[in-house]
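Exercise 7. Predict the joint structure of the components listed below.
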Amino acid sequence: MAAPPLAVTGYDVVMAVHIMAVVIAFGWTFALPLVFAVASKRDPRTLPVLHRIEVQVSRWMLNPALVVILAAGIFLASDGHHWSEFFVQWGLAAIIVIGGLVGAVLMPASRRAEAAVSADLAAWSGEGEFQPGAEYLAATRRLTIVGSIASGLVLLTILFMTIKP
Amino acid sequence: MAPAVTFYTFVLAAHIASIVIAFGVTFAYPVMYAVGLKRERRTMPGFHRIQDSVGKFVISPFLLLALLCGIYLASKLEAWSDFYVQWGIGVIVVLGGLGGAFFSPRERRLAELADRDVGASGVGEVTFSAEYVALRRQVASVGYLAAALVLLTIYFMVAHTGA
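Solution:
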């Protein structure tokens, strides 16, 4: 194995931080469909706490990581003189759109889902399969649609950042 | 805008996306534990079952995809002798091994222990057994090490360390 020359440049470190922040900010959102499918089927009583966790992770992980992604992106675009390039402008717009969707749609919808499913569970005897009410289904439909759009945007942005069109 | 999509760049994007999808969720586990333990301890068995499912159906498949993309990229660049490639392959093997041999059986065991402790608490406040607490601490500690390994690997990949 070749000896690893650990030459560290500021650009490399900031680029690594930029990608680490993307992993931390968005990675967990891709697991949410499975998380809620398993919880609904096997442990419906975990649903309110899972929605609460969704809000807490958005607040304490996603939002700060978005700021890190943006700050690191600004450094990288300035250092590499890339401001006029499409992938930089797309990336900036994607961060703003995703941040807006999280704050204005996803977090409020998670709070509504938590309240609705808590009420549904309080009324559930525990016998038979749990059937959530219309309000919960409406909130989760919104979470699914907007969450899918945000996830698609993340994947498209990764593609644009890589191919640099 | 002149699109410059080559198969190589597409595979590189798939490699990065698969790492984001495979490992991102593990960074949320500490928050999941903290909120679950503070707000509703009775949900802990469900959390551990979710972790087990995420390991099987999210982490493992995307780890495999990251490995396949990495093999293609290293071959295309003829970079097999570079440190960052060997490190990356090593880390994927280690994390895959940990997933199958360490995390998965322990997450199932944690679910069983949590179920037992919640059941033993009846309708009162849930108190987890020393066995459960010790195992959860062990899983969390190795989880932190795995997360650190992921972050270090991202740095090596970006810097092409040893190229």
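Discussion. The mean pLDDT of chain A is 91.
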